[in-house]
Amino acid sequence: MKINYRQLAVLVFMSFIALKILALPGLLYAESGNMSWLVTLILMLVDTFYAILIIGLIKKAGNKNILEFMTEIMGPVLPRILMFILILKYGLVVANISKGLEFFVVENFYNELNWIVFVLPLILLTGFMVYKGLRNIARVSEMIYFAVFIGCLYIALKSIAGVDIFNFLPFFKDGVKPLFEAGFNHLSWFGSGTFLLMLFGKVDFSNEKRFTMFKFIAFAFILVLLVHFVFYGLFDVTSPTHAFCISDISQFSSGKSSIDELSWLVVSLWVTAQAVQLSMFGYCMVQAIKFTFNIKNNVFPILVLLIYIFMWSVIGENTVRLEVVFLSTFASVLTIVSQYIIPLILWLGWAVKNGGGKAKKSKKQKNSTKNGKILQKNALKTPKTDKNNKKLSQKGVV
Amino acid sequence: MKVDAVNTKAEIESKLHNSSDVKSRTVQFFKTKIVIMYVADITDNFLFNQTLIYPLTTYQNAVGTGTTASDVEKELKEKVLANQEVVEFEELQQAIDGLLSGKTLILIDGAQKILACDLELITTRAVMEPPTSVVIKGPREGFNESIKYNLALIRKRVRTDDLVVKLLEIGELTKTQVGVVYFNSVADKNVVKQIISRLKSIKIDGVLDAHYLISYLQKKPKSLFKQIGDVEKPDILVGKMLEGRIGILVDGTPIALTVPFVLIEDLQNSDDYYSQPIRVMLVRILRLLGVILAVVLPGVYVALEIYHYKILPTEFLVTIMNTTQGIPFSPFVEIFFLVVLFEILYEANLRMPQYFGMAMSIVGALILGETTVNAGLVSPPAVMIVALSGITFYIIPSQAAQFSVLRLCAVVIGACLGLYGMLIFCVFILSYLASFDSYKSAYLAPTAPYIKNDQQDLFKRANIKEMRKRPKSIANNKQNQNRRGNEN
């Protein structure tokens, strides 16, 4: 079951905004100060580059899945190792989304909550959506993306009047180094295009329109940067203490101790978007498990995924801080490999293979032209003889 | 088969277990004995006398010809019964089937075939406006229980050779006539083939209503959600067929089924196509809001009261607290009780004789509602919420049954998991619906997948003049996407 090009664009949009407007702005500010928006901008541009690169490769791959594509380029062993790395990467994102959702729901929705019980409906939903497949996730994303976009935009614009532009000045007051450090430490929040690796052979490009993808990526840029801008503009140095960007800016704007009604609707929409994203990356993880261990059916990998999500809700509670897991060097290195190196390897492999193919082809063509010329020459010079024919056939013309 | 008038008559009677309503008359046509057999209650007496008995007897007196059975057969077909469509049966069983479906058999002594003419008495109600599809503007004709009348209502609107009607007989005992109607150049041939083959494969003793066929046509028969459309008006059916859908008419029921079905169909009303587009847009948005309110409002109320009361504006919260003070039940029990009460009242009201219905409404709305509030058993906001939800159900009457189940689920989930649970529930429903495909058409189309062309008839309805292409979300003939008349 393939998804269409527009659905692909919607999924890219959703993944671009998924992790970036909740805890990230506060975490970035803690390290890079008022220039954090620049880190986001640059890393999103890098994400865009990689997303377009991978989409190009998906197009080239035709109906081949990622494993077939990799095997064709680099033989049978290396792809499985890379697949295993991707399992870890997707696992990291799944954990990130589920933990983020947990903190968000527990903090914003309830006074007291036993998340271990409450995670069960989320697990059921994820299991159902992953079981139903990519097309199902794409369709649900299509249903909700616009409401999420409009809702978040509404919150940002509603609060924009409170933004103090001087919070962004002076530029680069601590130099450029903190920006690089913050960028490196928080790489795991980016790399939105990694999910695309599992979409090889699953996209129908027949209805591709030129600007659809750019339009959706532009929407994501506008939304993320606007929310970051409003967040830093409102909270300035207190930004690191605000863990939930999207709900915190609306809380500020309402000027009350509680969040106003409409903002709650938007925040609720945000939760649904996160749940869908969890399914998306869960799907990728399941696919990666299937490819790595050559499993044919979906049930076992889905069970692994669901147990994994559940385990996170158990071990993560009060013992492991979100930052410890996601800001570790391991996470950053894993992210660099999976989201920046693997696509490059794929692209280079493909380029070398096809370039080599072209070179071989052109050499062959050259030979045949040369032989053709000999043939022509002989034809003009003397009548065809058996000897000439024999020579030519030896050269591979006939 | 050689017909011996008396013996064949006896044989038929014996096969029909000497049923009392099977009557016969014997006529001497020159030297040949003719037995006429018919089922009294389904044969039109007037037609029987005027178009069969009278010509038979008068013709004999006036001219006088024909001696052999084949001469008599020829004479009857070509002269005596020239104003009738005469059918020939070569097998006795075929003749019996014909007799039971309203045909009058003519058994000519010595003939090789049994002749029959159609003198069926059609008893049906008049063409009326269906109660579930009342319109302010537009045609008011609705289907009735006769497939013949219903086909006539369609033919009246469609005068083209492109309209195809395929009649099938379903039901081992009832032998109910089922008609598959579609436009040959518009409908998807594969879907037509699929539907006909599914219908032909039905093994059932009787089909008493179109809904009998639904479980055979649905791809997910156990699902709560509707997967086959139903209409009660010929103009709506023809409108759907013009988009590429296929209609299924069943004798004995005023409801025609349509396939493929997409969810958005129920948000559209035939009125929409006869009204101003801007008004239509507003109404459709209200309908969607109504549906959402109907399903989730009681659940959200319970969730807010139990878990998230801080979301409510202070003034509103104070009002609610004042009214709910002293109520002995939890918000969940309160709402659950009212929802169940509403369902019971609705069920009772539906089946009650009309003159009781009004009294029932008064008892339900005034006495029960008022008294329970005054007695302090339930709070006024709870009554208001359930009443609002109950009314908004009937914005889309054909989905009311599904909504009532969903509403109950929403109440339970809201009470157990709060707003977060409601959100998960909503995404689950969306995801479940997104996984549906009805005969090559995505259930949530044209929203998911998004189909640009079909946005012209989603919330905003474009002018009829501008709707040049048939909907792409419906499986139809992709070679014929232009609506005729707009081709240039």
Structural features, described:
The complex is a heterodimer of chains A (398) and B (488). Chain A is 74% helix and 1% strand. Chain A has 15 helices and two strands. Chain A has helices at 5-18, 24-32, 36-61, 66-74, 77-109, 115-132, 134-159, 177-185, 212-235, 245-254, 261-292, 299-315, 322-326, 329-381, 386-394; strands at residues 3-4, 203-204. In chain A, helix 4 packs antiparallel against helix 5 (77-109), helix 5 runs antiparallel to helix 11 and helix 7 (134-159) runs antiparallel to helix 11 (261-292). Chain A starts with a strand and ends with a helix. Residues 252-257 and 379-398 of chain A have low confidence and may be disordered. Chain B is of the alpha+beta class and 488 residues long. In chain B, helix 9 (277-306) packs across helix 14. In chain B, the strands form three sheets. Chain B has a five-stranded antiparallel sheet with strand order 1-2-4-5-3, sandwiched between helices. Chain B has a five-stranded antiparallel sheet with strand order 6-7-9-10-8, with helices on both faces. Chain A binds chain B through residues 4, 6-7, 105, 109-110, 118, 121-122, 124-125, 128-129, 132, 135-140, 142-144, 258-261, 264, 268, 271-272, 275-276, and chain B through 307-308, 310-313, 417-421, 423-428, 430-432, 434-435, 442, 444, 447-450.
- The CATH architecture assignment of the largest domain in chain A turns out to be Up-down Bundle
Counted by DSSP, the helix tally of chain B is: 14
Sequence stretches where pLDDT stays below 50 over 5 or more residues of chain A: 252-257, 379-398
- The neighbouring-strand order within the major sheet of chain B is 1-2-4-5-3
* Major sheet of chain A: 2 strands, parallel
Radius of gyration of chain B, rounded?
30 Å
Strand-residue proportion of chain B? 5-15%
Instruction: Based on Cα principal axes, name the global outline of chain A.
Output: globular
Separation of the first and last Cα atoms of chain A: 45 Å
Largest sheet of chain B: 5 strands, antiparallel
